[in-house]
Amino acid sequence: MEFHNNTTTHSNHSDGTSYSSQHYKVILKWISFLIFLGIIAFNTLVIVLLLSRKKKTRMGFFVTNLAISDLCLGLFYVFPELVFNKFGVPWNTYFCYIVYAFLSQWAVYASIHAIVVMSIDRLYVIVRPLSSASKGQKYRFGLASIAWITGAVLAVQYAVNIKSSKTFCYHFIPYMEAMIYIDATIIIIIPIIIIVICYTGIIITIRRREKRGFIPASRSEAVSTDEIIPKDRVISNAKIKTIKLLLAVVCVDILCWTPIFVDAYLQFYANIKAGLIYNVLYTFAPLNSFANPLVFLIFNFKMFRSKKKKIDSHLMHMNTVKSSLGSKRHY
């Protein structure tokens, strides 16, 4: 989401004071580099951890989908900005028109909408637990594909409005003011509305079940109360944990993307030039793709411990085998 020519070499602060851009460009360049490395490393780690698990869960599937979209955002959005605009590598025409013009915006939209898809799935799981349990891979892939298809359709408007040369590549949209409203609506307003509706439904459903108890009517006749209540409470706690995880991801996403739109509005309506503040916000906007995998890893720290135990036990087994073989040869 760029709202100015990002190849500008000298700008002004929002308060009108001038500054030498070189010092800030170097700082922002290396910050952007660290963000890029974090996006690639942590999202790859999440994908590997989830795909290597024997027990596949629906939440794990949607978290993997989010991690893949965040990884694409790092490769197609952050990487071109870093290499060509911050490190000054000459633009390649094909890279500009294919990767930066379309794929970069596609990744941004897909990453945002992947969070919305997760919220919708959590609502479905809480409100209709039995129905959601019967859904298979077609449901999961179908719901996840909505984020990617919607992102691809919305990215077309950027792909057809692109200007490039050896020194620059940027989206030039004649109706830029309207585009700010469109992007703010697609990236911030609509996702927030959908997520608020989902969380409202989740909270209402959980409150109702707390009042009624955890015993399902269809199972209470077959199994005793003492056996069902603890089990259902465990399931409920697990679902609540995933809801908290998703809420943290949503908050990070809003905190990262909202300031850049606020600054863009100020540029148009307060005649404020794009300066240091905007460049800082523009650099930190993709930080949500860096934070999303960290949130997941923090909430699922036990996964690391279990993986570490498996690796340690495997290494101990290998060392035992090697030592036993060595002793036999010596004998």
Automatic annotation (TrEMBL):
<keyword id="KW-1003">Cell membrane</keyword>
<feature type="transmembrane region" description="Helical">
    <location>
        <begin position="245"/>
        <end position="268"/>
    </location>
</feature>
<dbReference type="GO" id="GO:0032870">
    <property type="term" value="P:cellular response to hormone stimulus"/>
</dbReference>
<dbReference type="InterPro" id="IPR017452">
    <property type="entry name" value="GPCR_Rhodpsn_7TM"/>
</dbReference>
<protein>
    <submittedName>
        <fullName>Neuropeptide S receptor 1</fullName>
    </submittedName>
</protein>
<feature type="transmembrane region" description="Helical">
    <location>
        <begin position="30"/>
        <end position="52"/>
    </location>
</feature>
<keyword id="KW-0675">Receptor</keyword>
<keyword id="KW-0472">Membrane</keyword>
<feature type="transmembrane region" description="Helical">
    <location>
        <begin position="99"/>
        <end position="120"/>
    </location>
</feature>
<dbReference type="InterPro" id="IPR000276">
    <property type="entry name" value="GPCR_Rhodpsn"/>
</dbReference>
<feature type="transmembrane region" description="Helical">
    <location>
        <begin position="180"/>
        <end position="206"/>
    </location>
</feature>
<dbReference type="GO" id="GO:0042277">
    <property type="term" value="F:peptide binding"/>
</dbReference>
<keyword id="KW-1133">Transmembrane helix</keyword>
<dbReference type="GO" id="GO:0005886">
    <property type="term" value="C:plasma membrane"/>
</dbReference>
<dbReference type="GO" id="GO:0004930">
    <property type="term" value="F:G protein-coupled receptor activity"/>
</dbReference>
<feature type="transmembrane region" description="Helical">
    <location>
        <begin position="280"/>
        <end position="301"/>
    </location>
</feature>
<feature type="transmembrane region" description="Helical">
    <location>
        <begin position="59"/>
        <end position="79"/>
    </location>
</feature>
<feature type="domain" description="G-protein coupled receptors family 1 profile">
    <location>
        <begin position="42"/>
        <end position="296"/>
    </location>
</feature>
<dbReference type="Pfam" id="PF00001">
    <property type="entry name" value="7tm_1"/>
</dbReference>
<feature type="transmembrane region" description="Helical">
    <location>
        <begin position="141"/>
        <end position="160"/>
    </location>
</feature>
<keyword id="KW-0812">Transmembrane</keyword>
